[in-house]
Amino acid sequence: MKTKRSNLELSPFHAIIFGGNGDLALRKIYPALYHRYADGQIDFDFLVIPVIRKPIDREDFITRIRKFIENETNKNQIQKTLDAFCEKVTPIVIPTHEEPYYAELKTITSANPSFQNIFYFSTPSSAFGDISHQLKINGLAGPSSKVVLEKPLGDSLKSAIAINARINEAFQEHQIYRIDHYLGKETVQNLMVLRFANHLFENAWNAEHIDHVQITVAESLGVESRAGYYDKSGALLDMVQNHLLQLLCLVAMEPPQALDADTVRGEKLKVLNSLRPFTKKSADEDTVRGQYSRGKMGNKEVSSYLEDIQTYESNTETFAALKVWVDNWRWNGVPFYLRTGKRMAMRYSEIVINFKPVRHNIFSTKKSIPNNRLIIRLQPEERIQLVQMSKVPGPGGYRYKPISLKLDFVDSFKERFPEAYERLIIDVIRGNQTLFMSQKELEASWEWIESITSNWEVLKKKNQLYRAGSWGPGDNIMENGHTWINAYEHERF
């Protein structure tokens, strides 16, 4: 049975998840598949095949999956559908990527020859090539197969190209889905509608009307269990190279001719190719790298990064701030400020479009009129706010203050709010690559990022220490009186 959705179809599938007992699979992938099944969107046959390295009791494994799904859902409401979903889960063991160990996977998938095979690589990218090779020689990577790649995709331009070359031995570009869950968030999707379906915004979406743009992805947690990986990457590679650059692309891109994958991704690629590369001088003046020291998160004392990774010395940055220029006609002279860090004052992600001030203040006051702001909040809650000036009620002349008009998705849409992974996984099943990075985008982003890392190396640029629980460093890259707009600041006028 096939369910028609838009111009593409949903059809029966095997979801083969390498790294099937990992944190990402348990927290995101299985709940996403379950909720699309429970909501009736997956109303056709499927099988979930977690691939794990060591033997595990199936019932214990299913209990773990149930636990993560039940944590976010009313247990009594989901019991029947959860039981049915769990019956579709068949874990298998592949201890190493050698041909004989893929026999069981071949047997299971060959029982349903009409199903599409969706291979989800929830493993370190160093394993992507070996897995792809085994899928090819075992006859599993057919023309209807798809592969989902989790970040990070390499640690440099050279490694990203090498990994892709090995994957391309088994899969063609139209079969590859490079996932960035930020692009599946509802507010990110609404940014496209906000821009291109509203004359008011699209007419003002350029250097003539916009003063500057800020994109912040702040995390309150430290490195936690990711210490081994994180100390080899840092904030720039872990967050800026993918999440923040993709958000910048959606803000800065030109209107696509259509919403098909090739056209949208082509417009994002133009933005990446328009990013001004960093020089030694600009890498010194317009970038900041930082590392968290001891501090307070609420009333709790927390350790420093070096204590968290249990070493005496590391130059890995846990914070990065950049002043970025998009060298094209639309954004000429408009700085984009990007900022991300761990152990910051709170967890939140948002895009702030700061419009230029009115040209002349006609009101009899010495107070300057604050700029209008459009705030696109991605987490913890998803909302869009427009900060505009409004008269304060009462006599006494024209007293005004900023008022925030809010579209809060949680308040406005009372039904359950789907997670980003749900949208993205459905798009994979459907065969829609619009929200997934192309290889050209990946290579362009790495090339630009390396203009930073190479100059940091030349400069021997040091980290600025910042207290855990603070907003981190980065004020020195701001220009023309700009200041960082921290979480909820626009609500405290």
Structural class: alpha/beta
Strands, total number? 19
CATH fold name of the largest domain, please?
Dihydrodipicolinate Reductase, domain 2
| Number of alpha- plus pi-helical segments | 15
Question: So, the CATH homologous superfamily of the largest domain?
Answer: Dihydrodipicolinate Reductase, domain 2
Please summarize what this structure is.
This protein has 493 residues and is α/β, with parallel strands linked by helices.
Describe the structure.
- With 493 residues, the chain is an alpha/beta fold.
- The protein has 2 domains: 3-178, Rossmann fold (3-Layer(aba) Sandwich); 183-417 and 432-491, 2-Layer Sandwich (Dihydrodipicolinate Reductase, domain 2), CATH 3.30.360.
- The chain is built from 15 helices and 19 strands.
- It has helices at residues 23-38, 58-70, 75-86, 103-110, 128-137, 157-167, 186-196, 199-203, 227-252, 261-274, 280-285, 305-308, 409-412, 420-430, 439-459; strands spanning 3-5, 8-10, 13-18, 46-52, 92-93, 116-121, 146-149, 176-178, 210-218, 287-293, 295-297, 300-302, 319-325, 335-341, 348-355, 373-379, 383-391, 400-408, 464-467.
- The longest helix has 26 residues, at 227-252.
- The termini are far apart.
- Residues 1-7 have low confidence and may be disordered.
